[in-house]
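Q: I have 160 residues here and want to know how they pack in 3D. Can you give me a structure?
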Amino acid sequence: MPYFLSTMDSAAWRTGIPESLYPEALVPGQREIGSQAAANMWGNVYPRSGFVSQTDDDKASAVVAQRVADIITRAGQPHVYQVLKGNRHDGYWPPGAVTENTGTRNHKWQRLAPHMTQSCAMFPDGSHTAASDNNEAFALWQPYSCCKKRGQTFLGSTDI
């Protein structure tokens, strides 16, 4: 099931309005993938639109994937999308919203196209070759946790 289709959200996805006026979009250094200080800046998350200023197509597609993940893992965003957020209940804790530069705490990306990787990583994740047809695909992996069932005691077994 697709959680976000840019054609269904064309007004906000193509213009960046109203998010271009958010503090995250106006203050340099907030909500950026990578770090200018480390000379490894891939792009900014806000405004969450489909246009990215990046000379590397691979990095640009990763920034767009991060923007979409940022939208779909939060409720009440000014976009047309299906929320990818589970409801917490006793014994089940779904992952929180995707946030960039958090190490490996709440999400990882796996590259699916043009070359599928066997491992997952956070963006920025090194250098990669962009697809010749500019078609990139990523899988978002998030940790889910639940507690062990308690109140049950293994009394023993008899081998026959």
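Q: Anything worth noting?
A: The longest strand covers residues 108-113. The two ends are 49 Å apart (CA to CA).
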